[in-house]
Design goal:
- This protein is of the alpha+beta class.
- The chain is built from 24 helices and 8 strands.
- The strands form 3 sheets. It has a 4-stranded mixed sheet with strand order 3-2-5-6. Strands 1-4 form a two-stranded antiparallel sheet. A two-stranded antiparallel sheet has the order 7-8.
- A hairpin with a 5-residue loop joins strand 7 (about 420-425) and strand 8 (about 430).
- Helix 22 crosses helix 23.
- The longest helix is centred in the C-terminal third of the chain and has 38 residues, at about 330-365.
- It is globular and about 90 Å long.
- It starts with 18 loop residues before the first helix and ends in a 7-residue tail after the last helix.
Length: about 500
């Protein structure tokens, strides 16, 4: 049967991000320090942008007499020759009618961004954590995965869910959200959520998006397992024996020789249990809060810490180049492009500010008891609930709280800390999963190391206190907190 090639048209809908929206998505996920670096980069590339303080003393920049006709000059500069210069009429008319930028009222933005002082008095923050070290920005795990994600193919639903997966990876590369949370956050089916996890698990470094150590190792073994499959068998069926180095027991149970088992173990030792750490910065970094939750007589208010962010404005000296009498077509085209880029950045920075403020104000309304009394009063709160309240997509909330910290009376917390799913608590009420994990951790910290608590015992104690949780769930929470098993925590007492 011969294959035939045909040309045809097909209509399809797929999400397309404009350049402005891509920039907003990028800015929203940045913390204050990274945003400052991004602004400085834009300042170095775009001469239309400048910092207000640098131009305050230039009287020529603030000639009030030239401000009155700014709107008319910008809007009509390219059409000035339609009735005058007959030799350039066709060129000018085409340029005006085809250029959507000519419809932008730049004058209104001059009014907003050319004033010499801040548009509103800055709110004082009583105490600020010190920050002394600025580090060069390394290639992060998120950057590396997003680059691969941008080249991935799949249905819109799977790609939407995959974006949610990327937003819920910890520094080690493990997926911290359940499949149900991914499904709810992205609004897709359980099947598409599972396909999204599997898609991200194909990215480099191998092992990312695993839910636990066992899955992480199995993902890597798919690519490097030997023909006998011994390493996969050990990880899949004898992970406990592997942790306890009971190699002879593995050989006995599998009917394989001890030498084969040891070869499998040697292969496992070459795997990376924390694949995301290779992209983590090795240097220590001090945390500077992006948001302050300040107590006031009427409750708590949100204060965004933007004191050391440069205040941007448009450079007035370039506006005269928009007039065809002062510059060539090429120069005016360049200035228009730079103005468009500058205005786009200013809008997106303001949109970022408003989004973060809205999310944090929602946190205040939902976590007032925590802000007043401490971590024991943390309430369950889901990203999708906040998204519905402020009228945005859940992925927008995820980006707004990513890599950002809030200062409270009880310490500095990552904004993600405030979001925790609900589990059954005492008296039929719900409690945050974070508090349940802290209870498990506290019980283990107070145990007798000679007789450490088993997962089953912890489960029974919690059940007696009205918190329904299985032994397997306790083991999962313990693993999430990197707490060793009962056997590995046991220490023998030395008899003198």
């Amino acid at each position: 049967m011969l294959m035939q090639q045909r040309l045809g048209l097909r209509l399809a809908q797929k999400p397309v991000l404009t350049q402005s929206l891509r920039q907003l998505v990028k800015l929203l996920a940045l913390n204050k320090l990274d945003l400052k670096a991004e602004i400085n980069q834009e300042l170095s590339e775009n001469p239309i942008l400048e910092i207000s303080e640098e131009a305050e003393g230039d009287p020529e920049e603030y000639d009030e007499s030239s401000e009155a006709g700014l709107d008319e000059e910008v809007g009509s500069s390219d059409s000035a020759g339609e009735s005058g210069d007959s030799d350039t009429d066709d060129e000018t008319i085409g340029e005006v009618s085809d250029d959507p930028f000519s419809e932008i009222n730049l004058g209104s933005f001059f009014d907003d961004y050319l004033d010499s002082g801040p548009r509103a008095p800055a709110e004082e923050i009583a105490e600020r954590p010190s920050f002394e070290i600025f580090l060069a920005e390394p290639l992060t795990l998120v950057n590396h995965l997003e680059w691969q994600f941008s080249m991935s193919q799949g249905s819109a639903a799977v790609l939407e869910a995959a974006a949610a997966v990327l937003g819920n990876l910890n520094e080690d590369g493990y997926l911290t959200a359940s499949l149900e949370e991914i499904r709810e956050t992205s609004g897709v089916s359980a099947e598409d959520a599972q396909k999204a996890v599997e898609l991200v698990q194909t990215f480099d470094p191998l092992g990312v998006a695993a839910r636990d150590l066992q899955e992480c190792l199995l993902i890597q073994l798919r690519e490097c397992e030997t023909e006998d499959g011994m390493a996969t068998t050990i990880v899949k069926d004898f992970i406990t024996e592997l942790e306890n180095k009971e190699f002879e027991a593995i050989a006995h149970k599998t009917g394989r020789s001890l030498e084969e088992v040891e070869r499998g173990v040697e292969l496992i030792r070459t795997l990376d249990p924390r694949p995301g750490q290779r992209y983590a910065a090795s240097e220590s970094r001090l945390v500077e809060p992006d948001v302050y939750f300040v107590k006031s007589p009427n409750g708590f208010r949100v204060v965004l810490d933007e004191e050391d962010l440069p205040e941007l404005r448009l450079n007035r000296s370039y506006r005269r180049l928009l007039d065809r009498r002062n510059a060539s077509k090429e120069v005016r085209s360049y200035v228009r492009e730079r103005y468009h880029s500058a205005l786009q950045l200013l809008r997106n920075i303001e949109q970022r500010r408003q989004t973060i403020r809205s999310v944090c104000e929602s946190i205040v309304r939902r976590q007032r008891d925590f802000l007043s009394n401490g971590v024991e009063y943390l309430r369950p709160m889901m990203i999708k609930d906040v998204a519905e309240e402020i009228g945005v997509h859940p992925s927008t909330v995820s980006r707004a709280v990513a890599n950002k910290y809030g200062h409270t009376e009880h310490g500095i917390y990552e904004l993600r800390f405030f979001f925790s799913e609900a589990v059954q608590g005492p008296a039929g009420a719900t409690m945050p999963l974070m508090l349940l994990k802290l209870k498990v951790k506290k019980m283990i910290e107070q145990e007798d190391l000679a007789h450490p608590l088993t997962d089953d015992y912890i489960s029974k104690v919690l059940s007696q206190n009205g918190i329904s949780v299985t032994r397997r769930t306790v083991a999962k929470y313990r693993g999430d907190m990197n707490i060793p098993s009962t056997h590995r925590r046991r220490k023998k007492r030395v008899v003198s």
